[in-house]
Amino acid sequence: MEFFIKSIIEKLCSIYKYAVIELKSNYGLSSIWAAMKKIDEKLVFMVFVSLENGENIDEYNLKRSLMAEFNTTNIKVVKVFLSQNLKLENGTLVGIENFNWGIVANSSLLVNYIQGKMLFYSSDVESFALEFNYAMNYINYEKMKLKERKKETLPNVTKFLIITNVFLYIITALLSQNLFYSNINVLIFLGAKVNTLIIQGEYYRLFTCMFLHGGLLHITLNMYALYAIGPFIEKAFGKVKYIIIYITSGIMASIFSFYFSNGVSIGASGAIFGLLGASLIFSFKMKNQVGKGFMKNIISVIVVNLIIGFSIANVDNFGHLGGLIGGIITSFLLWGVKSKSETNEKTA
Fold first, then answer.
1. Sequence spans of domains, the chain
2. Which of 58, 145, 158, 190 sits most deeply, having the most CB atoms within 10 A of its CB?
3. In a structure prediction context, what are the per-residue pLDDT tens digits for the chain, which is 348 residues long?
4. Residues tagged active-site
């Protein structure tokens, strides 16, 4: 009950400009917290009480205390009676035997705080009842949205990519006998980009290197980035195009790294930069729908990440650039091309 009272007071304050006050005593109420609002010259106080304790309110001393504290006799006390058992069924209140209607006859609201429903209000407080009901419905809406977000799961392709990367990192850590740092020989064994080996014909390394990582921090940062941007690209382009963009960007990153960097290279960041490139194309193609601000934000993220990359040692910046270019080109070419899955969705 206390949580409900605090939540409703918070919403009344934020939406309808009520103020929260602390009462000097509880006066038989369920909370020492109340909501106050000035209307013309009158001060209105909304107080909260358990319906089961409704007949024990010391309303006389409550009003005297408020008048003394705020130095005015022009006050109104709206009593919010809270119950978890009382319900409205077919226009009849049920759940409490021998309900005393007298306690809610004047300046009263009757609420089931578990269900978040207004059951009754006296005619003299209709405007306050409407405000209270809106605030309560807003809280119910927020609860519903929170439940929906909890039910939401990662899109299938993004989930598969993250699981694949994490699985291969576990294999790398076991072979390296180190959870935090990957052994360079193990990475080479598993398919890292090594120019001399690619020249000898091991071209598969241009693909496999994008699923390997050099340490726990490395994979954590990359998987967080994939978790953040992957679902958006998967939804915007569809699963098939998303896979094509990701793989093509990763391979393009490896090719750039092969031609412009001699070091051993691993990591999903090239493919992730490709997803940023796809986001840029999306913002350009949909600028009338999403606005120019969205494009500016994407450009800012790309520029900041490139600057960070060039500022840190042992970062394959040519791989990042290659992935970004690969993502831009691939998503541009795929834009408007209907994949089989998209066609099936529209004809289903």
1. 2-151, 156-347
2. 158
3. 889 999 999 999 999 999 999 998 888 898 899 999 999 889 999 999 988 888 888 999 999 999 999 999 999 999 999 998 888 777 777 777 776 778 888 899 999 999 888 988 999 999 999 999 999 999 998 888 888 776 666 788 999 999 999 999 999 999 999 999 999 999 999 999 999 999 999 999 999 999 999 999 999 999 999 999 999 999 999 999 999 999 999 999 999 999 999 999 999 999 999 999 999 999 999 988 888 888 898 999 999 989 988 888 889 999 999 999 999 999 999 997 775 555 454 434
4. 269, 320
257, 316 in Cβ contact below 8 A? Answer: yes
Residues 6 or more apart whose CB falls under 8 angstroms from that of 244 comprise 330, 334
Strand 117-121 to 108-112 pairing:
antiparallel
Domain 2-151 part of CATH 3.90.550: no
Question: How far is the C-alpha of 170 from the C-alpha of 223, rounded, in Å?
Answer: 14
